[in-house]
Amino acid sequence: MPTAMKHFMLFFLVSSAVGFTGISHAPATSFLFSSHNNGPSSISVVSSSRVRSSLTATPLVVNGDTSISSVVPNNIRLTVCEKARTVTSVCTSGTLCTTSQSEGIEGAPFGSFVDFVLDDSGNPVILMNAMSMHTMNIREASEQDRGRKMVTLFAQLAGQSGGQDVSRCSITGTIEQIPSSSEDIAQIRLRYSITHAYADQVMDSPKFAFYRLTPAKIYYVGGFGVQSQWVPVDEYQNARPDVLARYAADIVQKLNRDSEEDLTLVAVHLLETPNIEEIKVTSVDRLGMDVRVTNRVSRKKLTTNEYRIGFRIPVISVEDAKSEILKVFQEAWEKGQGYEWEMDDELPGSSVPVIKVAEDSLG
Question: Which residues are paired to 242 by β-bridges?
Answer without folding.
Answer: none
